[in-house]
């Protein structure tokens, strides 16, 4: 049976305080599990899985040996600075750089195997005074100038393997001149299968032996008294001197071109910075003009007197907005009440639902009554308006439609006489 999720397995297990070794190699793990549940584990083997990310936080501080080789790791995060890790194997992965791992902070690291990855330089390994064995074979390393950095110090390094990389002849001078300074205890070095070694491997081996007295083997060849004697003879050979001069010339030329390229990039950055400042100045002036124009426009708008139509429109909009907010609040309260109903017990919930339905019916009936009342009021207002219109039309009718003036006068007289008769009868 193969494990797919180690975290799930660890959760099912109990009493893991006494576990000191964890070996789960040759499984189907796709993620690096957290091992913080193992407070005593020291040896961890996660090799031959399908892990793609090295999670440094998942490794407990007390782990001393970590093997995560033969995976699919392309990137990772920093391991704890207080880690007691002494041996680490991350070979046969897909790492292009070691910088994210911050291996230089692991002060107790002694053996590091980064072979057969996709590394192009040794950045991220500076400042390792405790490292004794470093394996970098089978990568794509082209640049060794990180060894000349003032921060670089491999004071305890005894074995270095940089074979099967892409190191050119101009980089050999770095090894020739700086290895005795940065790695004074180096005893074994492997540099075969590089372009510069393929041409004159024996001469390069002799030159390295001449620069480092403690060097015992170069590409497996021991520094025997016979080899040292042959070295003394070859040191006077013109070919070896030419090799040294040629290597130095290549290195100095490369440094010269690198300096020129850096100066050119610096000039380009300065020109770019100048153009950016000019563009920013133009942009700021344009923005200032736009703000002045907008400020003047707003000032004119504010100074304009408000007419009655504008005030009425503002009031109408404000009232409409207030009504909208009130409706939203009512809907929100109703939704909260419905949620409270759903959270109640079934018996109580049924009664409350009935009350809610009755409330809704009452609200509907009230709205219907209000609508009918509003319609009746509107009908009465329309009838009153029609009566007013008809009265107005009667008052403004033509004179020929009125009765003759004489008849009106006669009628008035008769009425007066009638009134006199009534008064006399009353007397």
From TrEMBL:
Domain of life of the native organism: Eukaryota
TM annotation in the entry: none
UniProt keyword Cytoplasm, yes or no: no
Record's compositionally biased regions (Acidic residues): 402-427
Keyword Repeat: yes
SUPFAM superfamilies (alphabetical): L domain-like
Entry GO terms, CC: cytoplasm
Record region (Disordered): 367-427
Pfam families referenced in this protein's UniProt entry, alphabetically: LRR_8
UniProt keyword annotations, A-Z: Leucine-rich repeat, Repeat
Biased composition range(s): Basic and acidic residues: 367-380
Gene3D superfamilies: Ribonuclease Inhibitor
PANTHER family from the UniProt entry: NISCHARIN RELATED, PROTEIN PHOSPHATASE 1 REGULATORY SUBUNIT 7-RELATED
Name of the protein in its database record: U2A'/phosphoprotein 32 family A C-terminal domain-containing protein
Species this protein is from: Vitrella brassicaformis
Upper classification of the organism: Eukaryota, Sar, Alveolata, Colpodellida, Vitrellaceae
């Amino acid at each position: 049976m193969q494990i797919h999720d180690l975290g799930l397995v660890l959760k099912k297990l109990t009493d893991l305080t006494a576990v000191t070794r964890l070996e789960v190699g040759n499984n189907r793990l796709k993620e690096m599990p957290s091992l913080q549940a193992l407070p005593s584990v020291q040896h961890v083997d996660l090799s031959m899985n399908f892990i793609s990310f090295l999670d440094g936080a998942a490794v407990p501080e007390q782990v001393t040996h970590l093997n995560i080789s033969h995976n699919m790791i392309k990137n990772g995060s920093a391991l704890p600075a207080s880690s007691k890790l002494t041996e680490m194997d991350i070979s046969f992965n897909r790492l292009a750089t070691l910088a994210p791992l911050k291996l230089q902070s692991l002060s107790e690291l002694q053996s590091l195997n980064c072979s057969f990855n996709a590394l192009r330089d040794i950045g991220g390994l500076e400042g390792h005074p405790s490292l004794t064995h470093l394996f970098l074979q089978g990568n794509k390393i082209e640049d060794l100038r990180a060894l000349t950095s003032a921060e670089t110090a491999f004071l305890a390094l005894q074995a270095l393997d940089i074979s099967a990389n892409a190191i050119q002849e101009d980089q050999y001078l770095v090894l020739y001149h700086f290895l005795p300074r940065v790695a004074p205890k180096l005893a074994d070095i492997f540099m075969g299968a590089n372009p510069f070694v393929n041409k004159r491997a024996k001469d390069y081996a002799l030159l390295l032996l001449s620069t480092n007295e403690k060097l015992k083997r170069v590409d497996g060849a021991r520094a025997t008294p016979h080899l040292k004697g042959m070295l003394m003879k070859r040191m006077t050979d013109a070919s070896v001197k030419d090799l040294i001069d040629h290597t130095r010339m290549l290195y100095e030329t490369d440094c010269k071109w690198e300096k020129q390229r850096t100066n050119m990039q610096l000039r380009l950055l300065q020109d770019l910075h100048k153009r950016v400042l000019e563009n920013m100045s133009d942009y700021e002036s344009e923005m200032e003009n736009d703000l002045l124009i907008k400020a003047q426009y707003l000032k004119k708008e504010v100074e304009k007197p408000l007419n009655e139509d504008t005030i009425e429109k503002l009031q109408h909009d404000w009232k409409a907005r207030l009504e909208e907010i009130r409706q939203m609040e009512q809907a929100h309260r109703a939704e909260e009440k419905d949620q409270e109903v759903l959270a109640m017990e079934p018996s109580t919930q049924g009664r409350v639902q009935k009350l809610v339905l009755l409330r809704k019916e009452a609200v509907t009936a009230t709205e219907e009554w209000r609508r009918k009342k509003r319609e009746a009021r509107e009908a009465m207002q329309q009838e009153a308006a029609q009566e007013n219109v008809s009265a107005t039309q009667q008052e403004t009718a033509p004179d020929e439609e009125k009765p003759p003036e004489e008849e009106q006068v006669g009628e008035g007289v008769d009425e007066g006489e009638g009134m006199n008769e009534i008064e006399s009868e009353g007397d």
